Automatic annotation (TrEMBL):
<dbReference type="GO" id="GO:0005524">
    <property type="term" value="F:ATP binding"/>
</dbReference>
<dbReference type="InterPro" id="IPR013563">
    <property type="entry name" value="Oligopep_ABC_C"/>
</dbReference>
<dbReference type="GO" id="GO:0005886">
    <property type="term" value="C:plasma membrane"/>
</dbReference>
<dbReference type="GO" id="GO:0016887">
    <property type="term" value="F:ATP hydrolysis activity"/>
</dbReference>
<keyword id="KW-0067">ATP-binding</keyword>
<keyword id="KW-0547">Nucleotide-binding</keyword>
<protein>
    <submittedName>
        <fullName>Peptide/nickel transport system ATP-binding protein</fullName>
    </submittedName>
</protein>
<keyword id="KW-1003">Cell membrane</keyword>
<dbReference type="InterPro" id="IPR027417">
    <property type="entry name" value="P-loop_NTPase"/>
</dbReference>
<dbReference type="InterPro" id="IPR003593">
    <property type="entry name" value="AAA+_ATPase"/>
</dbReference>
<keyword id="KW-0813">Transport</keyword>
<comment type="similarity">
    <text>Belongs to the ABC transporter superfamily.</text>
</comment>
<feature type="domain" description="ABC transporter">
    <location>
        <begin position="19"/>
        <end position="269"/>
    </location>
</feature>
<dbReference type="InterPro" id="IPR050388">
    <property type="entry name" value="ABC_Ni/Peptide_Import"/>
</dbReference>
<keyword id="KW-0472">Membrane</keyword>
<dbReference type="InterPro" id="IPR003439">
    <property type="entry name" value="ABC_transporter-like_ATP-bd"/>
</dbReference>
<dbReference type="Pfam" id="PF00005">
    <property type="entry name" value="ABC_tran"/>
</dbReference>
Amino acid sequence: MTTTSRVPVTLVTRAAPGVEVRDLTVVYKTPLGELPALRGVSMIVEPGTITGIVGESGSGKSTLALSLLNAVQPPGRIAGGSVEIDGLGDVLTLGGEELRQARGRHLGYVFQAAQNSLNPLKTVGKQLLDLGRSHGVRDGRALVRDAMSLLERMGLDGARVLDSHQHQLSGGMRQRVGIMLALVLNAHLVILDEPTTALDMITQATILRIVREVHQERGLTTLMVTHDIGVAAEVTDRLAVMYGGRLVEHGPTREVLGAPRHPYTQGLIQAIPRLSGDITQARALPGRPPTLGTLPSAGCVFRERCPRRMDVCETDDPLAVAHGDRSVACHAVELPTPGVRVERATPAARVPSGAEEDHT
């Protein structure tokens, strides 16, 4: 990916941007001191792709997503690394008005709990106009027309929704409002944080269809944070698997799910309940995900739960090694895995603990 120098936000290109994350480290202040929620995360998001970020609760998915907007809030802070986005440069060097204008104009974010991103005291229409004014939109009527068009394409009555407060809308409707607000200023990098959480299956399918259609028609680069492997299998081109604040596997979705190489990715898929066949084939991952206080300071973060643990895992943090179009961070990845048979994930599959909210 070619990294562009930083330019005023009003002059950015409208082509789908690429993203390059380098050695990103995010820490949170705790009674035990500053502990890393992300440590040395590096990845490239190709322009025009949909990339899924999956992992159990506490793996660092949402922290990574917020870092792309330079939006990590205290007690967290970005302690190192860079986030280069085409047309903006390193987002971590932006601040003040420049950063505020980048959010919305260039970077769109759909929050995990849609109701938390809406003001309960204002109608959706008033919040839309506030958004436009804050970004210097002079033609409010055109903004409303664009918003209504987006809402109607998503199967909603645009006029009714804009005249409604959040409590008058269902969860699926609020989620679609969040997508509209993220797109109405023509942002071309869109981040969706658990866009289908707590939605019924029909509404979930509708949201995923909207994501695919809008991504293609508007020429977006999209990142989707999810616990749900089925969601990732349904809509993403590439998949990034996170554990304990590390990126452990990254590559084309079909390859990662069809032939996972990291023991954690294998464990996630093997834990998925089967809809047919021998249901006893599903095996839960042993142990529990680490917390900030239990993350090891050295060695592999997955070693306590890993069936292929070796002595080197105790002392050396595995580096991400490229294998064609994929990367895997595991000391044992080159060794054969006796008896492991991994099936392709089904659309109904979910990561264990998928109902939990990801606070990191």
